[in-house]
Amino acid sequence: MKPEQLAVYFIMGSVNAAGRNPIEVLESALRGGVTCFQLREKGPGALKGEALLEFATACRDLCREHGVGFIVNDDVDLAVHLGADGLHVGQEDGDIRKIRSRIGGQMILGVSAHDAGEAGAALAAGADYLGMGPVYGTRSKPDAREASGTGLIRDAHAAHPDLPIVGIGGIRADNAAPVIRAGASGVSVISAISHASDPARAARELHQAVEEAIMEKERTR
């Protein structure tokens, strides 16, 4: 996966849209400049069966219209059925090597990692990028671990400089820069966009913050 595709990585399920139509939220975010979208349909009230398939198909089609990668969280069957661009899994979602074997070499595989050891193991198993965090405190995931800051991203980037990393957890436009300076290719957000009164504007502000941090990092090399 190209690092620039991770610049503004939006994650959302139907339950994350703050009571609004999630398709409209996604469309607004895509207009604002998100560079990747992950469908994470989990939690109380999450869609299942035909309702999930209909929603996921609409999300995929919107992403294709905007030329943005469509990633499915955890659900291998759904990702394969929809011909998704990628799949993202956590450390508890199964054997990463077996998952890579099942989805084949063409589908992007992202893996959540929380330390350098998990990062190395994910890379060896065939991960194309890592999701690392939570960087800051977050309420978007009730089961989230304690905030780790940017140190883990810095360590993983130093050990695996060619592996794209996206930081996640409590990230907003005003605190995205340290994540990029630590070595991340981009930032991943849920509520910073899905709960924003204007998702398009929130996406634009995040994109600008990330781009400015990347340019600053290039200048100081």
Automatic annotation (TrEMBL):
Pathway per the UniProt entry: Cofactor biosynthesis; thiamine diphosphate biosynthesis; thiamine phosphate from 4-amino-2-methyl-5-diphosphomethylpyrimidine and 4-methyl-5-(2-phosphoethyl)-thiazole: step 1/1
Alphabetical list of Pfam families matching this protein: TMP-TENI
Cofactor mode of binding and number, as noted: Binds 1 Mg(2+) ion per subunit.
Binding locations of Mg(2+): D74, D93
Cofactor(s), by name: Mg(2+)
Source organism superkingdom: Bacteria
Coiled coil (residue ranges): none
One cellular component (GO) term of this entry: cytoplasm
Enzyme Commission numbers on file: 2.5.1.3
Binding site for 2-[(2R,5Z)-2-carboxy-4-methylthiazol-5(2H)-ylidene]ethyl phosphate: T138, R139, S140, G170, I190, S191
GO MF annotations in UniProt: magnesium ion binding; thiamine-phosphate diphosphorylase activity
Positions bound to 4-amino-2-methyl-5-(diphosphooxymethyl)pyrimidine: Q38, L39, R40, E41, K42, N73, S112, K141
GO biological process: thiamine biosynthetic process; thiamine diphosphate biosynthetic process
Annotated Thiamine phosphate synthase/TenI domain residues: 8-193
Known catalytic reactions: 4-methyl-5-(2-phosphooxyethyl)-thiazole + 4-amino-2-methyl-5-(diphosphooxymethyl)pyrimidine + H(+) = thiamine phosphate + diphosphate; 2-[(2R,5Z)-2-carboxy-4-methylthiazol-5(2H)-ylidene]ethyl phosphate + 4-amino-2-methyl-5-(diphosphooxymethyl)pyrimidine + 2 H(+) = thiamine phosphate + CO2 + diphosphate; 2-(2-carboxy-4-methylthiazol-5-yl)ethyl phosphate + 4-amino-2-methyl-5-(diphosphooxymethyl)pyrimidine + 2 H(+) = thiamine phosphate + CO2 + diphosphate
CDD domains per UniProt: TMP_TenI
Enzyme type, top EC level: transferase
Keyword Magnesium in annotation: yes
Keywords noted in UniProt: Magnesium, Metal-binding, Thiamine biosynthesis, Transferase
Described purpose of this protein according to its UniProt entry: Condenses 4-methyl-5-(beta-hydroxyethyl)thiazole monophosphate (THZ-P) and 2-methyl-4-amino-5-hydroxymethyl pyrimidine pyrophosphate (HMP-PP) to form thiamine monophosphate (TMP).
Family: Belongs to the thiamine-phosphate synthase family.
HAMAP family reported in the protein's UniProt record: TMP_synthase (MF_00097)
Name by which UniProt lists this protein: Thiamine-phosphate synthase
Organism: Edaphobacillus lindanitolerans
Gene: thiE
